[in-house]
Description:
The protein is an alpha/beta fold. The protein folds into 4 domains: 5-151, 3-Layer(aba) Sandwich (Rossmann fold); 166-252, Malonyl-CoA ACP transacylase, ACP-binding (Alpha-Beta Plaits, 2-Layer Sandwich); 266-348, E3 ubiquitin-protein ligase SopA (Pectate Lyase C-like), CATH 2.160.20; 354-455, Pectate Lyase C-like. It is built from 12 helices and 12 strands. It has helices spanning 16-31, 49-59, 69-73, 75-89, 130-151, 165-168, 185-198, 222-233, 254-276, 342-353, 428-436, 448-454, and strands at residues 5-10, 35-38, 62-67, 94-95, 98-99, 169-176, 204-210, 214-221, 239-240, 243-250, 419-420, 440-441. Strands 1, 2, 3, 4 and 5 form a 5-stranded parallel β-sheet that branches. Strands 7-8-6-10-9 form a 5-stranded antiparallel β-sheet. The chain is elongated, with a radius of gyration of 27 Å.
Amino acid sequence: xxxxxxxxxxxxxxxxxxxxxxxxxxxxxxxxxxxxxxxxxxxxxxxxxxxxxxxxxxxxxxxxxxxxxxxxxxxxxxxxxxxxxxxxxxxxxxxxxxxxxxxxxxxxxxxxxxxxxxxxxxxxxxxxxxxxxxxxxxxxxxxxxxxxxxxxxxxxxxxxxxxxxxxxxxxxxxxxxxxxxxxxxxxxxxxxxxxxxxxxxxxxxxxxxxxxxxxxxxxxxxxxxxxxxxxxxxxxxxxxxxxxxxxxxxxxxxxxxxxxxxxxxxxxxxxxxxxxxxxxxxxxxxxxxxxxxxxxxxxxxxxxxxxxxxxxxxxxxxxxxxxxxxxxxxxxxxxxxxxxxxxxxxxxxxxxxxxxxxxxxxxxxxxxxxxxxxxxxxxxxxxxxxxxxxxxxxxxxxxxxxxxxxxxxxxxxxxxxxxxxxxxxxxxxxxxxxxxxxxxxxxxxxxxxxxxxxx
Length: 455
């Protein structure tokens, strides 16, 4: 027998009364065992609201957003809707928008290309008889759930209960081939979506990524992760997104597991808080937002100094005037709509794409986190690198004459054949150390011929 279709009902609090009326019409669909409806009202006392909602959202076969102006004006619900549309495009869920109340224009929404309910695509509250509108919606939902029900062959991953949610959530490390430096948020999402398509009944998600090789940390139930481990070790699953799977292991140590869970909980709550509260100049100094989806988020004038934004999705985000001194911008995803000051956009380009041979003369890179950046042969004449973190950066063959290096960290930087001269912040002992490591100090800059090579 096929298992019940899992239906996720999403609504704004302002529409709760309408939702309850619709739920009474949908009750008949669940009574025959073909479908199970779930909404935020079903969260039990003692359960982690965010965790349970996310798990239900990710395992739903059908996502039904109850559309109104309040729903679309909610950052939380709008983001949830956009994510559902993305999952629909990946073949992971069916999205059935229900138009409860009037909105400006459906053509301006993420679901503009989808068939909406009621059947006449007019708001339910515009019908002369609201009861008839809700019945029409229920009939449309039934057609979709009945069709989906007949296609299901195997049960979805078991849902956690209040008693076992904490106990059964585990973490699993998977190492795949490739360079971490060439990986971004979209790549991580692609890997997760491909695993979801291949392993439809396994409910797992990528929650962390580490440098070196590409090490991904998965979160899921112990049963699902053990099944994933068995598929890999048996040779049935050897690669994902054209990358070879090199190693797999559970995070067994209880302390490490607890620390990871706490870190992720803090990060998830922070992202949710930022989305729900539009605050200019928010203090987010040294926060961990690694691998977070911050697309479209409002962080204008925010203090993000020392924050870890690596692998975060900053598409369409507003970071205008944000203070990003020492922030880790490696492998972040930005687009033309991302509002980011020119200085930090340049830093993001350097640490994400590298800057071999690039002309950065006079650039303001003060207090930037350039650790590990590839700057070989770059022309940095007169650049402001004061307070910059250049730990482990490749500056071989770079031209740094006249650059301000006051307070810059050059520990373990590769400086072979790098050309210095007239620099602020270079002490005699530092100069000796740099020369011993292969740096060249000269009194005057090279001629135009060298510059043409450098750029």
